[in-house]
């Protein structure tokens, strides 16, 4: 049931955002699933750098939508102007107001309007706002359509030279603390190719963390400034990437593509060499967590197994260097 107050507000279109006074269209003939008579939420992909990547269908939908929700109205207005689109109402939809916008979006779509959603770049909902609105509109049983466009992660993946057969998307890693460590562990053990987003200023630190966690030799590609003038794809090992990124300031936007963990049968590696490797590291003064991570990466096996060995060795003999996580 749509809140009548919201419907009333929408009839008046009492916007707090950008409105250059244009008239709404009758609908979008080219939107999938729906008809021009019915409302729809339309997710529209926009360029990740090169404005030439805005598709004709995107232009069609954006120029005929009743309203466009966008992260930053000034930013999107520039894109619309470039595409020769004017007179479409813009409303903000960003990480801080997405939940608050849900009711009005639902009311609008239910009221027969075509509501477009874009983000500053790429596909909305991919490390960008949009997915919560989509979930709510889907739950309300309304029409959702998509005009696919560029997305930095997919573009980087296909150009990386790494396996595209099975991959996963991690977006941005948590910035610090336990959450980051735990996510790095998961990423290191993942057997599919992993796609990560990162800010340029944090690239060197993240590549160093990945090298430590996945082993120096894990294959990596770093895609920088895709579709732009200074597009570059660096390919090599995790350690090489970390050293490349720390040797100079990396500018522009970057995506990290990480090869999957090698498939190693648990039975291929006996316990003895693992325990030996652990003890060497601990005797050299490494902390248990670091030693476990490094041995797991070195032998290409699950961290859990190495950790269990560390624990078992300690229980057998509490005096040697092997001690469980959290005690050093
Ligand atoms: N929604 C976007 C998409 O579909 O790709 C992603 C938005 S996310 C906030 C921004 C991140 O995407 C950047 O930090 C960077 O990791 C990546 N990115 C965006 N544009 C890029 C480009 N032209 N080249 C490389 N990476 C890019």
How would you describe what is shown here?
This protein has 328 residues and is an alpha/beta fold. It is built from twelve helices and ten strands. The chain has three domains: 4-150, Tetrapyrrole methylase, N-terminal domain (Cobalt-precorrin-4 Transmethylase, domain 1, 3-Layer(aba) Sandwich); 153-258, Methyltransferase, Cobalt-precorrin-4 Transmethylase, Domain 2, CATH 3.30.950; 266-316. Helix content is 40%, strand content 15%. Helix 7 links the parallel strand 6 (167-172) and strand 7. Helix 4 (98-110) crosses helix 5 (131-139) and helix 8 (203-214) runs antiparallel to helix 9. It is elongated and about 70 Å long. The site of S-adenosylmethionine has 24 residues, from helix 6, strand 7, strand 8 and strand 10.
Annotation keywords:
3 domains, Methyltransferase, Cobalt-precorrin-4 Transmethylase, Domain 2, 15% strand, 40% helix, single chain, binds S-adenosylmethionine, disordered C terminus, Cobalt-precorrin-4 Transmethylase, domain 1
Quick summary of this structure?
The chain has 328 residues and is of the alpha/beta class.
Query: Biggest β-sheet, characterized?
Result: 5 strands, parallel
SSE run: HEHEHEHEHEHEHEHEEHEHHH
Find the CATH superfamily of the largest domain: Tetrapyrrole methylase, N-terminal domain
| CATH 2nd-level architecture of the largest domain | 3-Layer(aba) Sandwich
What ligand species are in this complex? S-adenosylmethionine
């Amino acid at each position: 049931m749509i809140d009548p107050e919201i419907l009333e507000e929408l009839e008046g279109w009492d916007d707090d955002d950008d409105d250059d006074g244009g008239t709404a269209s009758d609908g979008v003939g080219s939107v999938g699933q729906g008809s021009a008579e019915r409302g729809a939420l339309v997710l529209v992909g926009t360029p990740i750098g090169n404005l030439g990547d805005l598709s004709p269908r995107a232009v069609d939908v954006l120029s005929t939508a009743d309203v466009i929700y966008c992260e930053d109205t000034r930013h999107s207005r520039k894109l619309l102007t470039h595409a020769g689109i004017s007179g479409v109402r813009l409303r903000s939809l960003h990480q801080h107001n997405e939940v608050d916008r849900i009711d009005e979006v639902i009311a609008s779509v239910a009221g027969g309007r075509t509501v477009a959603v874009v983000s500053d770049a790429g596909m909305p909902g991919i490390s960008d706002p949009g997915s919560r609105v989509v979930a709510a509109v889907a739950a309300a049983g309304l029409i959702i359509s998509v005009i696919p466009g560029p997305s930095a992660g997919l573009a980087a993946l296909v150009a990386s030279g790494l396996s595209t057969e099975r991959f996963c998307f991690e977006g941005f890693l948590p910035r610090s603390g336990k959450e980051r460590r735990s996510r790095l562990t998961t990423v290191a053990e993942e057997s599919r190719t992993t796609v990560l987003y990162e800010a340029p200023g944090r690239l060197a630190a993240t590549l160093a963390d990945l090298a430590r966690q996945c082993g120096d030799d894990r294959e990596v590609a770093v895609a920088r400034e895709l579709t732009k003038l200074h597009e570059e794809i660096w390919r090599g090992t995790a350690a090489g990437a970390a050293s490349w990124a720390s040797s100079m300031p990396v500018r522009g936007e970057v995506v990290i593509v990480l090869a999957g963990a090698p498939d190693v049968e648990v039975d291929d590696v006996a316990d003895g060499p693992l325990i030996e490797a652990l003890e060497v590291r601990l005797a050299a003064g490494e902390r248990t967590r670091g030693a476990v991570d490094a041995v797991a990466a070195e032998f290409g096996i699950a961290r859990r197994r190495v950790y269990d060995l560390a624990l078992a060795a300690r229980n057998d003999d509490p005096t040697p260097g092997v001690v469980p996580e959290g005690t050093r």
